[in-house]
Every structure is written in structure tokens, then in C-alpha cells.
Amino acid sequence: MERQRHQGMAKNTYMRWRLPLVCLLWEAAMIVLFGVFVRFGAEADAHWEEERREMNLTSDIENDFYFRYPSFQDVHVMIFVGFGFLMTFLKRYGFGAVGFNFLLAAFGIQWALLMQGWFHSFKDGKILIGVENLINADFCVGSVCIAFGAILGKTSPIQLLVMTLFQVTLFSVNEYILLNLLHVKDAGGSMTIHTFGAYFGLTVTRILYRPNLEQSKDKQGSVYHSDLFAMIGTLYLWMYWPSFNSAISDHGDAQHRSAINTYCSLAACVLTTMAFSSMLQKKGKLDMVHIQNATLAGGVAVGTSAEMMLTPYGSLIVGSISGIVSTVGYVYFTPFLESRLHIQDTCGIHNLHAMPGLIGGIVGAITAAAATEDVYGKEGFMKAFDFTGVYQTRTPSIQGGFQAAGIVVSLLMAFAGGAIVGGILKLPIWGDAAAENCFEDGVYWEVPEDEESDVYHMHNPDKPASP
Amino acid sequence: MERQRHQGMAKNTYMRWRLPLVCLLWEAAMIVLFGVFVRFGAEADAHWEEERREMNLTSDIENDFYFRYPSFQDVHVMIFVGFGFLMTFLKRYGFGAVGFNFLLAAFGIQWALLMQGWFHSFKDGKILIGVENLINADFCVGSVCIAFGAILGKTSPIQLLVMTLFQVTLFSVNEYILLNLLHVKDAGGSMTIHTFGAYFGLTVTRILYRPNLEQSKDKQGSVYHSDLFAMIGTLYLWMYWPSFNSAISDHGDAQHRSAINTYCSLAACVLTTMAFSSMLQKKGKLDMVHIQNATLAGGVAVGTSAEMMLTPYGSLIVGSISGIVSTVGYVYFTPFLESRLHIQDTCGIHNLHAMPGLIGGIVGAITAAAATEDVYGKEGFMKAFDFTGVYQTRTPSIQGGFQAAGIVVSLLMAFAGGAIVGGILKLPIWGDAAAENCFEDGVYWEVPEDEESDVYHMHNPDKPASP
Amino acid sequence: MERQRHQGMAKNTYMRWRLPLVCLLWEAAMIVLFGVFVRFGAEADAHWEEERREMNLTSDIENDFYFRYPSFQDVHVMIFVGFGFLMTFLKRYGFGAVGFNFLLAAFGIQWALLMQGWFHSFKDGKILIGVENLINADFCVGSVCIAFGAILGKTSPIQLLVMTLFQVTLFSVNEYILLNLLHVKDAGGSMTIHTFGAYFGLTVTRILYRPNLEQSKDKQGSVYHSDLFAMIGTLYLWMYWPSFNSAISDHGDAQHRSAINTYCSLAACVLTTMAFSSMLQKKGKLDMVHIQNATLAGGVAVGTSAEMMLTPYGSLIVGSISGIVSTVGYVYFTPFLESRLHIQDTCGIHNLHAMPGLIGGIVGAITAAAATEDVYGKEGFMKAFDFTGVYQTRTPSIQGGFQAAGIVVSLLMAFAGGAIVGGILKLPIWGDAAAENCFEDGVYWEVPEDEESDVYHMHNPDKPASP
């Protein structure tokens, strides 16, 4: 009763009819649209046996499933456990972190299968799907999970679903422009996933600026065990990132190379993150926020170039720089963004995704511009950049220019899209919580009554948090 | 001392000689039986190089290992981390959940290799094993993990080992009847694993009915962090379920299709679960019990049909329905089963496995009955349902009837087997705890003395649990 | 302030300039060395398309990536999540366990790529790397993670980095002697990883003996939730160990066989561990320390022989014995080592890695010596032991002798290397903590101020730990 009164004070967060309605109507829409449009691609269809002979594949193992399924599962873990648990660092928002991430991603992958399908797998009025579509849907949702990080703890589940609907749509448009119109390479998504997702999320959180957020400041920190839960997320993201960046690369050497480059970049990133985390703190102690996040910047920053001939030492350099930039960001930029630009970035996605994503786009542009037939071999050169058909006349330096254009387009889409979606989310109908109830699971979740309670202060709002 | 007195009051839970004796004797029996019967199959034997040429396989990569090992590892994670951590939601039974699941599964896979081996891989007096046997052993043990969910917190480790011994045996007989005698398809085990496992477990817990269980009611709930541990189990089950349902499907399109169908079904299930979880609670708040469990019903419910041409939209429909049924089950059926039918179902396996398992069997029967050569292609049709040899005359509608018969047989085996095994487990020699000590790790485990103790009330039995 | 004073009493643990300096200089050195030496191997290079035809590979899927990448990812999880979380059992050292393991492994894999590369992948002045190198680098670092277990909680991050630098170097030398000079088989690393790593770590901790360590005795235990975090580590190690032992075995039957043998050994090990854990405790209760550790001994003990024709029942026997030896070790040997030999082994690596590693080496020697052409087939025999070229005249019994020699060499390298490195780490310049501050994250980490604090006693050093 105390709880109810306390939460009900400022805003109506009652979800009982609104959330079910949105979930059920949207799922019904998915069923109808899947019924009209989605079918199995050749390699997943029961006609495969006949198709296979036509495709001149000698063995069942040449089914794309065996090239991509293990990577798909790794990516899947990154989206649901990786992002989900990374955000459990907040002391009283673990249910929301894992649970809402679960909800938005489960909706998002369905909508992404449709949106991306219309753009990329549409044939004779049907979207034909296979394992690569599943990976791409997970990728697309990854950009939503990133944006979620900026508004974590401050939004209702309905707002998150609305954001997912729009962001997946915009992601697919942006991806189409980059991959199909600009003919840009971005297998690990430095531009399409990270730059777009992060600046989109930052714009949204700017629009949703809450001047009184310091009222829930005591809940914005972590406790000992919540930091360990977050490390589960960190490590799964870190370990599986080589799979992420290589998941949709060309079969053979490109997948192999992407994994190696990413492995190297991430390893270097850990060392520079630790170095700067200790160096930038007066007592010289390591900060779990940096270890949980900045160690991953190396994966973001080779997203575009991992499948290119970046080389292992190139990866070490990129990883080293991105770890430094990201850690410095946590120490100096995040407070600045909040106090001066009114950008309240709960998880610091500006440091983990935005800046490293830009680095990734730039490194990709440079690596592409520097490509030579000598380094790639004649066949490898064609294959790596797909300089066939209308793109036959492209040179590496032109490709580099288009890559750079891809960054700009992603940024514009993110700012414009984020502004519009932020405006929609600002409408007072979505059931977000009052400032003093942010970062608090009790608003949308049944929370168990712990004897030695983590949620103690919800029942005793008068008691100060840190003695 | 306090602890000892408290626990020793009603029942003798002293394990020191009984548990070691059972473990060591049974392991010795495994060694003898493996020594007599189990050998490497052709693809794992050092003679492979010669066999390979005879089998007309052109490359090492056509070894079944490469088709199935990644899926095997995903299934393995589901059994040990998935089921193990899913059950850690209880505030004081985390060690028992993870630890006893570990124990029974480690024994069960050995016994399953033998039992399933005799039925399916027996040649010239030897059981020849390969990676597919490992997957099937894990599957078989999965049904024991399910049954464990019903009796979680109320049984001794010896009871669990005894149940595993019998349940694996009965599972293998039931599986043999379904797959070999009825020629039923059930790659993801809606019938053999879920329906059988769940109704077996429910029957056992009915026989073991404890009228005074409300004495440990304060320990049947969760605390904040135990709910997050349980989400680790949930997410790994959810993410890897596509691997579960496709792990033993035919190479190529069937595996590919199973994964896609399961992915779709699970995504839809999350949305309907969230919708009903909020709708069925007066305050409209989400309940972690539903999110932890009902979101998985979509995987269970396409277990039989995932490798068939269920189609993505068909999967969305099945997943949506099963999420609703499962959530409604948690809210209305579980209390009813307990109060009226005296079925005390700790984890609610009736909602997560029993009902969705039945749905899965029925959907499988319908999908099979509706199969046409047009949809599957001539070759695909034969391959999908194995209508060769003595089964050449089977039509889809006959196959549908046999599929339905498979459900009935699984149910009968579960009820009869569960009743017998329940009767055996009721004998007063197995060392189960008294009602007031259920759901309490301290009975069978050395528990660390936390300062701010989760196990506080064990040392202070007089203090009430919820202030 | 209280905290600072308390920690600063005895020793200078200020890391602010030392740690960054080491991290940044060493990472710079890695970049230079990678720039000079490391390039992509043929299968990861963009020239692959041309190479492939020369290598007579018909399909992209014959790229080694597809044979090894799924196993690589499993091994990767074992190193970072497996070892990292296994060590989180300490109540106040979770950040250090996961975080320092992350740091040393991230540095170690880079240095291992170089060291192992010079020995094994050096061609025309360049180290050519592919997925197998990544696995081997992870393996090498595994031996450092093992040694870390012995000194957990007692060393500074700089000491760990210094140890990593030397241990990776010595590991690579020892591995070269065993694999190339003695022509020994050790795919799962019973000798090179476990025996070497464990005795190295034990020697180091002996040299670093701290007579006053009982001053931090209250922090050497676990709390309820830290034991559950540790089980995450245990289970991932246990589940993925079949991938570990098969990751670099020959394609085809050898990989397949390694996985099966390891699966069997681990399953048996769980039962004998549980049996002895209960039997050796007066109250007959299970001890989480044993379940967390001794259940893994079965994987260590078949490390050498898993790819040989050990047979499933042979694996059960080896697994059973190693579970017993390891559990007995925790109960009797660890206290003995500490009180009599002054070997303070925080995680009990003597029981989990040293003794089972020796068993593994011996079982490998016996299995090799007992090999016959009858059991392996003529081709399989040659392939399994590589009896070609200068080794054409080797017989199984001679091979067995060389295998045994491999154990002795590994032990000598471990003792000698450990003594030297221990001496270096004893220098008073590395910033390790005073005895009363061991096993305490607050020394090197920013620790959140929990209300119901796990780190309570750091702020209140006067209050006793266990009331």
C-alpha cells in the first residue's frame, strides 16, 4: 500500500491494459504480416534436396546453416544475455534491464525479419528467410539494445516497444541506403548498428531530458553483486564479438579474418582500458564501470574493417585507441554531456558505442581506401569489395569516400530519427515513471520482499540511501 | 548445533553413508556395463579413415561431428546451466537446484547412453556411440530435469538418483515405442521429453504429497538476486532452444528449418507472456515467475513440428498461444492443482512443459496430417516423414493419427511410471527432509555463514520470515 | 578516508602510475612485435581463393575455420567466464577474480600468439596465424589462469602481469620441447597446461609464502551468492571441456573421439566427487568447494589420452578416480600443504589441476604404450601418433616412454620456472597488499558502498566477521 501510494504520486504507471493491448495487437500484426509475406528460403525449405542439385552443392554441409549457425548462436547470446546482463549493474533495476531487453528484442527480431526482408530478401512477393536473416534481425535489434542503454531506468515498457518499432524501421532504411545504394561494406556494423544506434539513443534521451533526475540518484549506482551480474554480460559480449563481426562475412577467408582481427582488437582494448581506468582515478583504483564497458570498444571499432586486410597489428592499434577513448569518455565526457548538453546517458553508450562506432567507420574508410590488388590478390580484391556489375569502375579511394559518406548518412538518420521518436515518446500517454521512481524495478515489476532488502528504501522512502 | 537439532527433529536426513554408497555402486555398474557394451561408432573410431572411403564421404568435414557438435554443446548448456539455474529462483535452495541437477544429469547421461544405445545403436553385441548419442542422452536427461522441477526442494539426492534411474529407463522404452513402433516424428521431443517428463513428475509429486508443506512457505519464494540467477537459466534455455529442436533433425534443410521455426515461436511467446502477466495481475505489474518460465513454452510447443513445414507464421501462432496458456496456468491452474488435486508443483512444470508439450504433440499431428507433396516436394516428402520400407503406404493423415497415438502412449507411460516410481520414493529410507525443512539448502549442504544471512532463519527458527 | 588509512598501513598498493605504465608499455611492445612478425595465415588471407585451389580444397567449408571455430569459442568461454567466475567464490574478491583474470588473459593471448608463433608458425620471417593459433593462445593462457588460482587474492595486478609474461614464455618453451623434440601427444594439455601450470603456480605461491595470512582468514570464505557465481564458472568449464580436449585434435574421428571420451570422464567424475564429498564430512553434507572444483578433475585427467582410443569405459574409470583423488585432496592435502609445506593454495589447484594433470600424463603414456594397429587400424595408427618421417621407427612402447618423459620435463620446468618467477615477484616493488588486506577487492578496486554491505568490515575493521 505504501508502495502503491508512493509510486502513484506523480504519474500513472499502471500498465494493466495498455501493455497487454500493445503486445497482443502487435503480435497479431506480426502473425498476419508473416502469413502474407514470410516463407522459408531455399536452404530451409523441404524442396532443398532438389534445389541443392540445381545449385551444384555436393553435400548437405554446404547448406548455409553450417557456415553460419554457430556464429548466429553467439550473436543471439550477445543480444539477450550480453546486453541484458550488462545493464543489470544498477542496484534495483535488474528485472527491468534483463526483462525489458528480452521484451523489446523479442518483438524487434520479428519486425526486423519483415523490414529487412522487404529490402533484401524479397522475391516474387515473398520474403524468403534463412539463418542469415536471423543474424541480421539480431543485429538490427542490437542497435535498439544500444539505444535502450541511454534511457535505461527512465522509460516504460510501452515506450520501449514504440521505440523499437520505429528504430527497427529506420535502421532498415539506413542499412538499405548504406549497403545497397552507397555499396558500403559494414559487416560488423560499426556504422549501421553502433553509430546509428548510439546517436539515435542519445538523441532520444536528450529529448526525454528529466531535470529532476537527481531525485533518484541513490538508485543510479551499483551494489557489489549487481556489478558481478553485469560482468556476465560484459564477458559474453567480449568473448563472442569475433562471431558478431564475422557472422555475415563471406564464407572462407573473410569470416576467418574477421574473427582474428576482432580477437586482437579486443585483447588490446582491455589493457588500455585498465591503464586509463587506474590513471584517471586519484587513488589509482580500477573502476568496474570502465571494465564493464570500455573493454568492449575494441569490438565496435573494428566492426567495419574486421573483414578487410586490417592485419593483426592494425587491430591492436585500433583496439588500443578505442579503449583509451572510451575510458576517457566515461571519466570526462559523460558528466559533461549530462551537465551541459542535458544528455542523460545511463549506461554511457556514448563511450561504448557512439565514439568507437565513429572510429570504426573511419578506420573502415581508411582501410578500404588503402586496399590494393597486391594485398588482396586479384580475386580476393574483387570478392572483398564486390567490385562487380555497376561497381566495376570503383577504385579503393572512391570506395573510401563512399564509406565515409556512410558515416554521415548514419549520423543524420540517427539525429533526425531520434528527434522524431523522442518527440513521440514524450507524449504523456506511455506510462513512464516520475523522476523519483526511476531506476526502480518496483514500478513495473512484482518485487520479492527481501528480508535484508535491496529494495528496502522503496518501502522506507524516508530513510537516506547511503549512511 | 542449533541447526542440527532443528533439522534432525522429524526425519533422518543423514547422507554420509547412503549417498556415497549409491553413487559409488552405480558408477561401478556404469563402468562394468560400458566395458561390456559401449564402443566408438564408425565416425569416432580410429578406423574412420578406412570407413570414410567405404561410406563415400569425400571430406573429413562430412563426419557427423561437424553437423551436430555445435548443437550438442548448446543442448548441453541447456541441461546443466539452463535447467540448473532456472531452478535457483528459490531464496535458499540455490545449491540444491544447481548441484542436484548436476548430479542427476551426470548420472542420467551415462545410464541413457546405455538404455538408448540398446534400443537404437546396438550392433553385433555392442553399442556404437557418436555425437548423436550424446545429444540423445542429454535429451533423455532433460525429461528428468523437468520432473525434478515438480519435486524441487522436497526430496533427497538419493531420491533424485532413484527417480533418474527409473525415469531414464521408462523414457527409453517410451521413446522406442514412439519412434520405432509407431514411427512417429518428434525431433524436439514435445511428446517424448516434455509431455512424458512433465506428467511423470506431476504424478510423482502427487504421490509424494506433503500436507504440511505450508510450514516452509516462507522459503518457497525468491529474493531479488535469486530471481536474476534464475534469469540466466531462462535466457540460455530460450536462446539455445532452436539448437535443441534442430539438434537431431536430418542434415540440411530440416535442421535449418527447425531452427527458424523455433526462433519464431519463442519470439512470439515472449510478447503474449508479458501481455498476460501484466493483465492477470491487479496492479498490472509483471511477475518474474511468468517471465522466467512461460516465455519458454513456445520452444516446447513446436518440439514435434519444428522440422516440418510449420512455416514461420505457423510458428508465431503456436508460440503466441503457448505463452498465453502457460501464463494463465501459473495464475489459475497451479493453485488449483495444489489445493484441489494435491499436486504440489514447485516450478510449475505443468505450465511450462505439460500443457505446452501436449500442444506440441497436437500441432505435430495436425502438421503431419496436413502435409502434401506439393509443399514438401516429392523427395522432401519422403525424407521428412521417412515413408520408406514398411511405411511406404503411410499417408499424411495416417501419420497424423499415429502422431496422436504417440501423445496418448506418452501420457499413459508417464502416469503409470510416475505412480510406480512415486510409490518407491515414498519408502521412508531415502532421507528426505521434514516439511518444515523443505526448500532449505542447509539440510544437505554445508552453507556458508553469511553475516547478512540469507539463511538467517535456519539459525533462528523462531523469527518470522516476512516482517 | 578510513579505508585509505587502513589499507595504507603496511604496504604501498598505490597503482596509479605503475599499472598504467606496465599496461601501456607492454601493449606498445605488442603492437611493434605484431607489426614486425604477425600476418594472416593462408586460410585467413585475402589470397585464399587462389591458395584454396592450390591446396586442392573443393569448398569454402574446408577452411579450417569451420572445423575449429565453434570449439575455439567454447575454449574462449572457459578461459574468461569459466576461470574468471570459478574464482568468484571468495566473498569480497569477485572483482579481482573476474577482472584480473580478464586482464592477464587479454595480455597473455597476445604474448602467446607471438611466443607460440615463433616456435610453431614461423615461415619466411613471419608468424602466420589462423584459428588454431587463437585456440593455442587461449590454451597457453589457461595455464596462467590455473597458476593465478594458487595466488588469488594475494597479489597485485602488476605481479599478475609479470607472472603472465614469464609463464607464457616458459609454457611455450616447454610445449616446444614436448611436442617437437620429444614428439609427445598432448592435445588436451594434461602435461603442458595442467601439470605445468599447476606446479608452476604452487611453486610461486610457496616462494611468496605469507606467514600472517590468517589475519585475513575471515575473508577467505564464501557467502551464499558468491558460491552460486562460482557455479557459473564450474558449469561452463565442465560443459565445454569436451571442446577443450578436442579443439586441436586432427579433423574427423580424433576430434569426435576426444569429445566423447571427455564427456564420459566428466560425467563419472561428478558421481565420485559427490560420494566422497559427503563421505569425508562428519555430518555427511556436501561441500560446495568440492562440487565447484573436483567435478572438473575428470576433464584434466583425460587431457592427454582423450584423442587416443581410451574408450568410453576407460574414460569412466579415469574420471571416477580423478574425482576421488581431487576431493580427498581438498579435505586432507590442502591443509597439509599449507601447514607443513607452507604452500598457500587459495583455490586448491593442487587438487584440481596438479594431481589430475599427473594422472592425465600417466594415463596418456599408458594408453600410447598399449596402442596396437589392430585397435587403431593401419592408417589410423600412423595418423594418431604421427609415426612418420624421423619417427617412423617409434613403437608404441617407446612412445609411452617419451610421454612419461614429457611429464618429468613439465615438472622440472614448472619447479625451476616457478622458483625464478616467484623470486622476481617477491621484490617489494610490485604493490601487493599487506596480509590483513588480502582477499579484499577494496585494495585495487572502487567498491560500491552497499547498504547491507558485503564489504562492511573494510570500513569497520574493528568488528569481528562471524558473530
TrEMBL record, chains A, B, C:
Keywords carried by this UniProt record: Ammonia transport, Cell membrane, Glycoprotein, Membrane, Transmembrane, Transmembrane helix, Transport
One Pfam family hit: Ammonium_transp
Gene3D superfamilies in the cross-refs: Ammonium transporter AmtB like domains
GO biological process annotation, one example: ammonium homeostasis
Assembly notes: Homotrimer.
Keyword Cell membrane applies: yes
Listed InterPro entries: Ammonium/urea_transptr, NH4_transpt_AmtB-like_dom, RhesusRHD
Location(s), subcellular: Cell membrane
The Ammonium transporter AmtB-like domain, residue ranges: 63-427
Keyword tRNA-binding: no
UniProt gene name: RHCG
Protein name, as recorded: Rh family C glycoprotein
Organism: Catharus ustulatus
Single annotated GO MF: ammonium channel activity
Membrane topology category: Multi-pass membrane protein
Annotated Gene Ontology cellular component terms: apical plasma membrane; basolateral plasma membrane
Domain of life per record: Eukaryota
Family, similarity comment: Belongs to the ammonium transporter (TC 2.A.49) family. Rh subfamily.
Membrane-spanning segments: 21-42, 65-86, 93-114, 134-153, 160-179, 191-209, 221-240, 260-280, 313-333, 404-425
